[in-house]
Design brief:
Layout lengths: L4 E5 L9 H13 L4 E5 L9 E5 L5 H10 L9 E4 L2 H10 L1 H9 L2 E4 L16 E3 L17 E6 L9 H9 L6 E6 L5 H13 L3 E5 L3 H10 L2 E4 L8 H8 L4 E4 L2 H7 L6 E2 L4 H13 L7 H12 L5 H17 L3
Parallel strand pairs: 1-2, 1-3, 3-4, 4-5, 5-6, 7-8, 7-10, 8-9, 10-11, 11-12
Helix pairs in contact: 2-4, 3-4, 5-6, 5-10
Length: 329
Amino acid sequence: MNTHRVLIISPATATANNGNWQTASRWSRMLSPRFDTSIANAWNGEPFDVMLALHARRSAQSIARWAQAHGALHDARRLGVVLTGTDLYRDIQSDATAQASLRYARQLVVLQERGSEALPPDLRHKTRVIFQSAAAQEVLAKPSAQLRLVMVGHLRNEKFPQTLWDAAHLLRAHKDILIDHIGEALDEELGAQACACMHQCPNYRWLGSMTHAHTLRAIAQSHLLVHTSSMEGGAHVILEAVCSGTPVLASRIPGNIGMLGENYAGYFATGDANALAGLLLDCHAQLNDVKGLYSQLAAQCAQRLPLFSPATEQAAVVALIQDLLHADN
């Protein structure tokens, strides 16, 4: 029998179906065998034993209300705050409500191993890492004559899609390097730039929004996932690629390094299309070389695979709730 009630605050809804919602939904399923778990956009004062709030700024009102209801100016009992990329690398630097959320939380959660470095040193002691997970995917055969790559992410500034478009222009004479781009245009101007790139680069396709199942299949059918973001808290698409047997080329930002490891060979400087194009050319040239770059990336991703297992994530989330329940008042 579930005796403790857990509330997960998600600023995103099921309709948005973005990373915050996916995390909230998955954690609710993982906790439900042991706890009576609910998801809401905000806390309305209803009694719960534990509250987990995703996003320090967007959930700040619920976080503050919980802390005030429990008479705490800091380390409010049974309150956990999960930090996203915009939290870590933008909001907590300047937003007073996000900064207050950090103080109110009894536990802070980051989603990759470099996340705590963005926090004030005096708050790092109450921070833990919980890697997100994905079920192991069928590893699909990939063509041997062509290099197929995919980028997944809605078109918005944080994803820095211009890097991919610039690389596509540099590679447009290479008909055997095929570039697919999945994601809805959340910015009309970026959508127009994607259309322009398609007209100018015959090896680039912008496919728009796709279902999660079709997106996973596109990742599994590709040789590489390209991830050009300028800001990430721990991109779920990276671990989905790793779980699909698809290596990653990623911008060298803390959120990506925290997912793939400090010594990963597939990084390029943020916005450096020349470096991205060079990595793609090297992977293509060495595609079937067991000692080449592509094989090295595949081996390094395989070493990270255990971090992203559902069992590992579930154990970590359950441990978080148990620690919050039993922490000293």
